[in-house]
Amino acid sequence: METIDESEVSEINDAGVTDPVKVGHTAMVDRDNRTTIGEILVDNPRMSCRDVNVYYGDNHAIHDVSLDIGRNEVIAMIGPSGCGKSTFLRCLNRMNDTIDICKVTGTITLDDEDINSKKIDVVPLRAQVSMVFQKPNPFPKSIYENVAFGPRIHGLANNKTELDEIVVTSLKKAGLWDEVKDRMDQPGTGLSGGQQQRLCIARTIAVGPEVILMDEPCSALDPIATAKIEDLIDELRQQYTICIVTHSMQQAARVSQRTAYFHLGDLIEVGDTNTIFTNPRHKLTEDYITGRFG
Amino acid sequence: MSNTASKSGNKARTIDIVYAGLRKRKAAERRFQLYGKLAIGLGLLFLSLLFGSIVANGYTAFVQTYMQIEVYIDPDRIDPEGKREVKELSRADYGGLVKATLRDMFPEVQSRREKRQLYRLVSTGASYQIREQVLQNPDLIGQKISLWVPADDEIDMLMKGHIDRKSAEEDRRVKDNQIAWVDRLLSEGRIEKRFNTIFFTAGDSRDPELAGIWGAASGSFFTLIVTLLLSFPIGVAAAVYLEEFAPRNKFTDLIEVNINNLAAVPSIVFGLLGLAVFINFFGMPRSAPIVGGLVLTLMTLPTIIIASRAALKSVPPSIREAALGIGASPMQTVIYHVLPLAMPGMLTGTIIGMAQALGESAPLLMIGMVAFIVDIPQGAFDPSTVLPVQIYLWADSPERAFVERTSAAIMVLLGFLITMNALAVMLRKRFERRW
Amino acid sequence: MQQPTEGHTVVRYDGELNGLHLLMLEMGSLVLDQVRTSLTALKNEDLVAARQVLIREHKVDDLEIKADDEIVSVIARRGPVARDLRIVMAFSKTITDLERVGDEAARIASIIEEMYETDRSHPSGQLMRDVHLMGALVTHMLEKALGIIDGLNADDAEEIAKGQVELDAEFRSSLRRLTTFVLEDARNVGHAIYITLIIKALERIGDHSRNLAEYVVYLMSGDDIRHQLRQLQPETGPDDTNDFDDRNEAF
């Protein structure tokens, strides 16, 4: 909420006070203008990205994106397919490293440490910035093993009791404990889609991340399961920073505090979710969220 | 429908056109299915012909004609000095004992020619059998023992009906008086067909009635063990590296092309390679399963690598992403998640590769595994032969009795192959895609 | 007429929003006619026309209900956001305001009935002078506001804001004059009360017209300028500070 673009608003206010009736059409930014509209900065950011460019071979997938991600906020990234929102999300924990031809330039800092530097080891980074994927992808192992895998490989538990505790806490945080406590040894793949996705979130929480990246976490789920995940996201905001990519604008409006709109690799507009969904400044943003293309 | 069509005027409704063409369409469909059925039927026909001829030729090899003889273990012949020394005993003339016994059984035989024919009733294996008994139990000396010994292969053929009694005597390898003796023994119940244990327990022999496949089977076993121990770890490691870690560039593309090429290289080339490298250069023993295993490893590797890569590819990327997304290192991802999921596919590929190796003969000919080896190999360094080569050897032998043994050996080999392939199918069914 | 929206991927959505706009314009012209008719009736002391206004009031109500239904249905089925959301919100409020303008027109009509039906003496032209003046001003404001809604062009909103200031001043001076008339001749009290009610109704219509213009500004730019426009007004009495939300409609 603190992140409303002060300069933008005050400019309008000034105009409004002196000559209120001339406000009308000047506010809307033209379609061809691709500089980011809105306030990209936040106070005391958890992550901040500056001039991030991503190339897939010769394809320039993301152009000069700068964006701060605040603490304990849910930031939603929306945009038409192929706009680069998922690619950008995957930059935040270097998941793009798994693609050979992908090159990322610019600085991305997590608590003032540049994570895009080659010197950074991605293993501890991904423990801090963990990812939940579009399709629920539990390991074909027991529910317990699914959650215990992360803490085990990172050596977070010294003994079985500690590990059990992490597993139980994570499942509780993910709101899944009551549903699975009697069948911890059954395969995670036997759960329903929504439960599987919450299991994946529990698995992510178990490694104690600071930032959770979610790549369209509800696109494969029914509305009830979606609502549960959204409720969970709201709960998790107390402890984690969450970046969520979503195709559903309603979902972005429901769960996020800030929204970033991407279009063809450009970050078009960032702002307070309320503002974006009632009064976007950029014509592209408005056209997209009102359903005029995409 | 025609009513509706006429009602709707000159423009025919879609449904009428559809109905009009329906009969033709269904006929085409039936024809198409018929072609498929014919193809499968033809395949089955040839398969059953092949199996039928093999089984028809070979099933008789599982029985063997045995004769009962009462042998008097004459101390004068065996151990004239009465020392009962093993060395003496094993060198003694047991053949003479058998001959004496036969003379006793048919006292009317007098002429030398007839005697020779008489002696040919019994296999030379009979004397070995007596020696074995005597060596085991020297107390038998001086006693009269009753023994069932294998009949000669010609008599065996006669008993199995492969020799036509009605043809002229000079055209047969079994003479009239031999037939008469056999008939007498038959009426006395002293000759009969029994289960052929020799076939399953003995090594190779020039005498068909004494030849068995156990030597070749052991050779095959040792060769396959060597192949498996080498090709599975190497193949899996290569596949995992290429699929999970190797960067995609021209060099890895080249490797991939070469692996695919290797799979198509004629196996005899691997034999030549083995001969040149392992035997001539490294000086490894000829005819040994260790060299056979090395050569077959070269041949099986491409199959295992290709199958393993396919198995790794079929593991959904979401599993890898899930593990990487919470900070697992690439190796942990592979060890904990990818390999267990790919393992059934890898094992299937390996078993199929092993089955191929089991049936392979050409490269082994080049490294000397085609030698005539009577002894049963006790390890991977002993000279030996393998099942397919044994089949080849027997198929080359002139004796009539080797024909059925060849077929029987083929049946044994097929049995192993079917078992291995069934195992592969079972593994696949059992562990297939549990995600 | 300016189409409020076009270019939605779902073409029917455009149709629904534009249909809503048309419905609103229909209601607007009906209401404007009501105001005009009642003012004419007042000028001509025409009881028949006044009754006609009262009868047509139901049509305004029906249109309001119909428009409300459609707005609810658009919200429920399309989940409008951004400009679409502002269109729906602005239209919804516009319809409420228009309905209230209709109410004020009907109120004037019923006052006319009461004033001229009885055998008592009719108010003098002097007393009525301010009423006609304000009536003309208000009609002009309402016409202008409807023009803005029609053209979806907020540029003229300034004029309405000015008209509102003028109207307010007029209202105040009328009240003062009425007080003078009543002090001069106590028999004027009865008429003065009626006239006060009428000018209050006219003042309300002016307020609503200003609101209508503000909704269009909000729709077009996303800026809520209601409070900013208020700052343009001269010092106002305490009962005016919150009258844009119509709580003191009853007066």
Describe what you observe in this structure:
- The complex is a heterotrimer of chains A (about 290), B (about 425) and C (about 250).
- The longest helix of chain A is centred in the middle third of the chain and has 14 residues, at about 160-175.
- Chain A has about 290 residues and is of the alpha/beta class.
- In chain A, helix 7 packs parallel to helix 8 (about 225-235).
- In chain A, about 35% of the residues lie in helices and about 20% in strands.
- Chain B contains 19 helices and three strands.
- The two termini of chain B are about 50 Å apart.
- Chain B is extended and about 100 Å long.
- Chain B has three domains: about 1-60; about 60-205, no CATH class; about 215-430, MetI-like (MetI-like fold), CATH 1.10.3720.
- The longest helix of chain C is centred in the middle third of the chain and has 36 residues, at about 80-115.
- Helices cover about 80% and strands about 0% of the residues of chain C.
- Chain C has about 250 residues and is mainly alpha-helical.
- Chain C has seven helices and no strands.
- Chains in contact: A-B, A-C.
- At the A-B interface, helix 3, strand 6, helix 4 and helix 7 of A face helix 15 and helix 16 of B.
